[in-house]
Request: fold
Amino acid sequence: MTDLDATARRILQGNDRGGYTVPTAGLYPYQWNWDSVFAAMGFVTFDTDRAWREVETLLSGQWPNGMVPHILFHKVEPTYFPGPDVWGGVGPVPSSGISQPPIAATFIRYLADLDPSGADRAKAMVGPLTDWHRWFFDWRGEDGAICVSHPWETGRDNSPDWDAPFAAIEPANLDAYYRRDTTHVAEDERPRRWDYDRYLTLVKLGHDCGWDEAHLREVSPFRVADPTMTFTLLRANRDLLALAQRFGAETAEIEGWIAAIEAGSERLWNAEIGAYDTFDMRAGKHSGVISNASFLNWYAGVRPERMLDHFDRIAGLLPYGVPSADPQQPGFEPKRYWRGPVWAMMNWLIALGLRDAGHDGRATALCDTTRSMISTGGFAEYFDPRDASPAGGRDFTWTAATWLAWASPTAKGFPWQA
Ligand code: DGY
Reply:
C-alpha cells in the first residue's frame, strides 16, 4: 500500500455516513447516484461488505416507477441547496426527481466477480436494475437514443452542450434563492448564475407536476439525447444481461434494449465534426461539442474505430487529458467544472472502453496520466488539464475510489474483458 492508497482509504472512511458515502463534506452532503457506485468500487478494495451496502442503500431509494434518483437526502443538511423540499421527490426516501448515468449494473457485475460470496446480493439487484433500465427506455428513449430532462441528469452539469438548449429557456416563476455551492468552492470553478436560473426552472417544472414523466415529455423545454446516458445505459444493459444469464433471470427484454440502443446511438453521431455529441430533440440540432462523454462509445462497445483521431488530437494539446470540453472549441474554460477540467472517474470509464476495444496503448497511457494527475493535484473533484492543479471540492470520494480501484500502482488494474 502506498501513502496515497492510505489517504484514499481515509477519504472514503471520512465521507462514510453509515451505509452511504457523501461525495465530499459540505458541498455534496448526501448520497449521489453514480458517485455512490464509484464509492463501492473503492470500498471493495478493502471492505467488500461495505461495498455491497453502498449499492443496496442506493437502490433502497428506487421510486415505484423504477427510477433511481440522482440524490437521496437521507438526512437534511443545511449546507446544500436545492434540498428535498425544492425537489419534492415521490419515492420511499426523500430525493431529487431525476436520475443519473446508470453505471450501477456494470460495476455490480464487477463486484460480483471480485466477491463471489456476494452472489445472493447481486442476484437480488437484477430485478431492481431491470426496472430502472426499463424506466430509461420508457421515459427517456427516442428510438433508442437516451435523452435527459435536466443537465444534472448527465452529471456534466454545465457542459457547453447545454448552452444552446438553455439559451432557449426563459427562467420563469423562480422564488429568490441562495446558492450554497459557491460558499464551498470558488465561483469561477462553478456554473454561472445564468445556468442556475435554468436548472431551477426545470426543477420547478418537475416539482409542480409531481414528476409526471408523461407530462414532462410533452411540455419540458429541455429534452436532449446525450452520450453519457446512451453509452452508459448500453454498457449497463450488456452487463445486466450477463448478470441475468448468470442468475437465470429473463433476458429477452434486455437483449431488445441492447439492439435498440445500438441503433439509437447513431443519432448522436455528428458527421459534420466526425464525433459523438448531444442532439437537442426540441431544436432538432446537434451541439457540435466534443466532450469527455463523446469518448464513451468504446465503453458502450460501439464503433471502436471512431473517435480515435479526436482522442489523439486532444491528447497532443494538453499534458493531462481527457478534458471535459475540447480546448479547440469555443466554450472551453479549463477551471470551470464541466467546461474543460479533467475528471478522474471519466478517465476510468473511457480507459475501460479503450481497453475493451483493443486500444490498449491508449488505455495504459490514460491510466498513467491519471495517476500522475492525482499524484500532483491530490484527491480533488476535478483538475485543470494544463497543470493538474486541483479544482472544485477536495477529499473527493470518486477520485479516491478511482485511485484505489484503477489508477494506483497497486490497483488490480482492469477488471473483466467485455
Ligand atoms: C450540484 O448541486 O452542483 C450537483 O451537481 C447537482 O447534482
